[in-house]
Amino acid sequence: MPWPSRKRDKGAVADKKEPDAKIAKTEEETPDKEEEEKSTKPPAGSSKSGWKNWKKTKESDSSGEESKITYCHWLLKSEPESRLEKGVDVKFSIDDLKAQPNQTTFWDGVRNYQARNFLRAMKLGQQAFFYHSNCKEPGIVGIVKIVKEAYPDHTQFDQKDPHYDSSSRKENPKWSMVDVQFVRMTKRFIPLSEIKAHHLAHKADGGPLKNMMLFTRQRLSIQPLTQEEFDFVLSLEEEKPH
């Protein structure tokens, strides 16, 4: 029996500021706003030095010409803590994924049109960060890969599912899903607060995370990443947390 729909209803909610914070409205109902976590400045030099060190490793590969932005990696948000939605627990952590047959499952329950379009743009073999959201300490915990491209999300037709959509028709389904497979855990947990410190520094110095959608469209549960964004965030797993 497959896991219940667990990723999102109409979209990602803002990550909690603290454990008892109220759940925000969905992204379709509420315009984007600044991340709810406190914006603490990074320790002096920490973020910029991380960017400079990363930049040095990339300079030899750069032609100096600015290329067109393309998205080839992804960030997928899921909730690791129990939360009932229409009587169904939508919890789904990376450990739950690892427990699935062949460590593979469908990524269902997306009910935001932009997030759905990102799902439909995913290509076989592309990698994504698995991001724990709406919990005490949100952040990146692992890496998954796309093993089946977009196809109709069956939960939209299931009246017992919290993500049932009575307006969707089988001859023209509104919602899609993909299959993902566990690749590995990140070498360490990469918290949102650390990624945000780099984002704020990069906004000032032109680093790779300056336009990262995790902060510009943070309510989306499916987010694209450029190669530079993916590589920089991945490089953080090699650093000691500040």
UniProtKB/TrEMBL annotation:
Pfam families for the chain: EVE
Keywords of this entry: Nucleus, Phosphoprotein
Listed GO CC annotations: nucleus
Coiled coil: none
Biased composition (Low complexity): 41-52
Basic and acidic residues composition-biased segments: 10-28
Region: Disordered, residue numbers: 1-62
Location in the cell: Nucleus
Main location: nucleus
Domain (EVE): residue spans on this chain: 73-235
Record field: transmembrane: none
Role description: Specifically binds 5-hydroxymethylcytosine (5hmC), suggesting that it acts as a specific reader of 5hmC.
The protein, known as: Thymocyte nuclear protein 1
Organism: Thalassarche chlororhynchos (Atlantic yellow-nosed albatross)
Source lineage: Eukaryota, Metazoa, Chordata, Craniata, Vertebrata
Gene (name only): Thyn1
